[in-house]
Amino acid sequence: MTFTPSRLIEELKKSPNFDVCYQRRLSSDDAKWGRNITEVDFPRPLITKLQEKGIYRLFEFQDQALQSIRAGKDTVIVAPTANGKTEAFMLPIISRLSSEEKKVQALLIYPTNALINDQFQKIRPLIESVGLGLACFTGDTPPEDRQKIFGTPPSVLLTNIDTIHANLSKSHYKAQFKELLRSVRFIVLDEIHTYVGTFGSHAHMILKRLKRLLEGSPVVIGASAT
Hints:
alpha/beta
């Protein structure tokens, strides 16, 4: 049975297992819309996958992010939780990458492994719809999976700052890891509000070191809900 929010509250009040101590209804602002996804030159399989997910139109901020990233500009995306920040940076990245190139072209950096695992499942359908490869490379990644990544690099790699630091400096995989990331064209830092203080300084220096390895100048993208 499906309940409206008001009906759900009323049902909870009747239950001896719940005690509703505070109730407030927040009004929602009208969404600011951008273009229909069919008006953007996305690959046809990507459009089909978005439509399967119930996405037929971009929000205004997604459209703005799309145009900024496609223009090769470093971009920061700020929007409330669950409003489509991931799609805002992934759609322009996916539409620019070639499924024929077997090398890492987009590096997605998250502050925790739990978030990496969560985002992997969210991004996977979009990535695979256009034939691109996707993988996670963290301290939890088994050696056999690391070798698969080195042997057949995915187009998109999810990782964290500490993994980059460890594998650029003293890891057994140091040379392989450097070669793996040399072709990166997009660097995404999600939850950028976490990179403050000592941790922020640490991340800054690691990214400077990483960018010195790259064959070109990457587009750097930040995303945060706050």
